[in-house]
Q: What sequence folds into this?
């Protein structure tokens, strides 16, 4: 599996650290249910998913990668700093 | 049909014409007392213990594929009770005791082999950690022996003890650990449940869960609607999809775990061995194949196959530990879908919906739990009370932060277990 880093180009999966689903962070006072949802509960889709990967063996950027969990097809990646949740 | 030595002899002398199918292939009834979604090891054992210990026999197990076709037939077959934390410790101890009586109980040869399991350590710090773990196991009433290097050399002479980077200091020996024939576990429980009247409905995929006023009353399936007073979800890697049918989000991420088997070899590895400096564990099947595996690939996946970096890691770890296996040819590799939870421990609990129960989150360690998981889940479904050996696997422990069972001590967070 290779991930298309917007800065470095297509690179081997081993250069990246996997964080998990790319979710919108709730406001600090959003309440327990919202934070439980954000920290622990997951949609865990069988199909296309958006997730955070960190290019720690490369440029050090956080990416939002769109990937298919059934086929491992990588659909695209953008910088997390520029991605809309 | 009961199995016995006499029966085997008789059938052998009469052309083996008297054997009958292990279970029926019934049509779905319109209504059951309990519907179990998922005909894997855990679902089948749940049905078996509901029928055997709680007198409930109007039960259906709904399997979208075929019995034995999921993770219960895709694992590395290791059975052990070497957990450290309360919550896990008593549960896996309970499971190992059930394993030890399983073949007599089921009248079925699951080839449970208590060949002993050795977790190797490679530093003083690891020795201390394993000494603590061993003490916890002994306090639980199970068995553990801390072996020094000479002790390991005596039983595993073929390891690379003087490896430059990872010399072997010793191992924690768990004599009652071992393996079992995974398919036979599924078949044995399926047969036992069927004999007690449970309907095993294969090729029957659940497409919806019927809930009215906060109470479950049945399921929609590819073989028609089925009413039920109680519905139990036991679908491992597919927990998120099935729970979503009940409007629930669960604390599970599905990941891929790969396993490997070599060509058949003469007996060479008599135990289950795990490497302490890389993720690698190995045993030899009764057919002679070396069965081994490593860590999950570490990204969400339903593909049931993995990528090459983990293959490389596992092979490197194996070669580091026991260079002799470099001569063996890998015959097959495969992947299973693991239902990973934030703390690495499972869920056996009710849900907020009346009559709807959830059993999931077995991470990459569900096989050894098959007997106790079904036993304790059946108790919960039948009596609406936790089994005394499974009180800790509560669904809301992440929300409340109370009772998290983080065996690895890395924090209750997805992607760390």
A:
């Amino acid at each position: 599996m290779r991930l298309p880093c917007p800065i470095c180009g297509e690179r081997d999966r081993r250069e990246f650290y996997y964080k998990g689903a790319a979710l919108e962070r709730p406001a600090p006072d959003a309440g327990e249910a919202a934070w439980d949802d954000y920290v622990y509960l997951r949609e865990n889709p069988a199909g296309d998913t958006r997730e955070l990967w960190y290019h720690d063996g490369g440029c050090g950027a956080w990416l939002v990668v769109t990937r298919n969990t059934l086929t491992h097809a990588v659909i695209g990646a953008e910088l997390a700093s520029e991605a809309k949740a | 049909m009961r199995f016995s030595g006499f029966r085997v002899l008789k059938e052998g002398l009469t052309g083996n014409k008297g054997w009958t199918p292990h279970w029926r292939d019934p049509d779905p009834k319109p209504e059951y007392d309990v519907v179990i979604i998922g005909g894997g090891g855990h679902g089948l054992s749940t049905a078996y213990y509901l029928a055997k210990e709680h007198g409930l026999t109007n039960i259906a197990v709904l399997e979208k594929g075929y019995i034995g076709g999921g993770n219960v037939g895709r694992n590395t077959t290791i059975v052990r009770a070497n957990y450290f934390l309360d919550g896990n410790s008593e549960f896996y101890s309970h499971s190992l005791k059930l394993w030890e009586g399983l073949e007599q109980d089921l009248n079925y040869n699951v080839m449970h082999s208590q060949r002993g399991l050795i977790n190797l350590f490679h530093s003083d710090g690891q020795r201390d950690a394993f000494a603590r773990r061993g003490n916890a196991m002994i306090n639980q009433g199970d068995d553990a022996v801390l072996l020094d290097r000479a002790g390991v050399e005596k039983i595993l002479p073929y390891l690379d003890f003087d490896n430059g980077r990872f010399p072997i200091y010793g191992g924690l020996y768990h004599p009652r650990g071992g393996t079992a024939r995974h398919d036979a576990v599924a078949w044995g429980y399926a047969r036992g449940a069927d004999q007690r009247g449970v309907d095993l409905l294969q090729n029957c995929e659940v497409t919806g869960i019927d809930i009215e006023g906060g109470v479950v009353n049945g399921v929609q399936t590819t073989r028609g609607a089925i009413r039920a007073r109680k519905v139990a979800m036991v679908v491992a890697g597919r927990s998120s999809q099935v729970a979503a049918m009940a409007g629930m989000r669960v604390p599970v991420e599905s990941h891929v775990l790969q396993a490997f088997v070599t060509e058949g070899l003469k007996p060479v590895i008599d135990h289950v061995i795990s490497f302490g400096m890389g993720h690698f564990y190995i045993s030899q099947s009764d057919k002679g194949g070396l069965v081994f595996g490593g860590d999950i690939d570490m990204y969400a996946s339903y593909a049931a196959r993995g990528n090459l970096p983990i293959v490389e890691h596992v092979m490197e770890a194996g070669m580091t530990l026991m260079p002799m296996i470099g001569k063996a040819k890998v015959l097959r590799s495969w992947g299973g879908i693991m239902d990973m939870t934030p703390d690495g421990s499972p869920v056996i609990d009710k849900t907020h919906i009346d009559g709807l129960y959830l059993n999931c989150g077995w991470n990459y360690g569900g096989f050894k739990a098959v007997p106790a998981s079904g036993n304790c889940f059946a108790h919960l479904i039948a009596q609406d009370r936790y089994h005394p050996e499974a009180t800790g696997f509560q669904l809301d422990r992440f929300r409340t932060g109370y009772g998290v069972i983080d065996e690895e001590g890395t924090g209750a967070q997805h992607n760390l277990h």
In short: Chain B is about 30% helix and 25% strand. The mean pLDDT of chain B is 97. The longest helix of chain B spans residues 89-106.
